[in-house]
Amino acid sequence: GHSRHRRTRQHDVLTLSPVPNTPQLLFLLRGINVGGHKKVPMAQLRHLASSLGFVAPRTYIASGNLIARTALEPDDAATALAAALSDHFGFEVDVVVRTAEQWRDLLASGPFPDAEEARPKFLHVGVSGAAPPATAQQELERYLRGQERVCVGDRHVWLDYAEGAGRTKLTPKVLDRAMGAPVTCRNWRSAQKLAELLDDVD
What we know:
With 202 residues, the chain is α+β, with helices and mostly antiparallel strands. The protein contains eight helices and eight strands; from the N terminus they run H-E-H-E-E-H-E-H-H-E-H-E-E-H-E-H. The strands form two sheets. The protein has a four-stranded antiparallel sheet with strand order 2-3-1-4, with helices on both faces. A four-stranded antiparallel sheet has the order 6-7-5-8. Strand 2 and strand 3 form a beta hairpin. Helix 4 packs across helix 8. The longest helix is centred in the middle third of the chain and has 16 residues. The protein is globular and about 45 Å long. The protein starts with a helix and ends with a helix.
């Protein structure tokens, strides 16, 4: 509608910033390119982002990590991307968004620094689009096995799959239910790599 157009113009006037100075956003897609389901080629993801007016879209590995700039509010940008994916591919993809600053703050506040060092592939951070219910931590602790640890935060959860994620009971279904929203996970190594890419400001 007209109101959005007007708001965008007014926003540009207020900040007087050219588009390259708009914040970098990190979009995390969930459950694509796994076992032949929900195939989203990264070149097409970048193309879709460009078609939405996102600037300088870049992707990292095939699990669905997109970095781009846009004048849209982060949540609006994630909604627009999810809608474009649904239109283009014919299936729903959950998209969670974080600003570069939010992502760096998240990684700097990890509760399991020992796991970051010892087992970066078994330590995962899961992010969601909504604040979890107060029961989330207790609910997830019921599913812990062996040396596993979990720590629920604001719209995120840290998972230390001490012996690997192969036999854990902390499945995506369990996480979603406890957190009250779809959770998208990345291991510590990938999470760090994404932070480096966000730092790499062109």
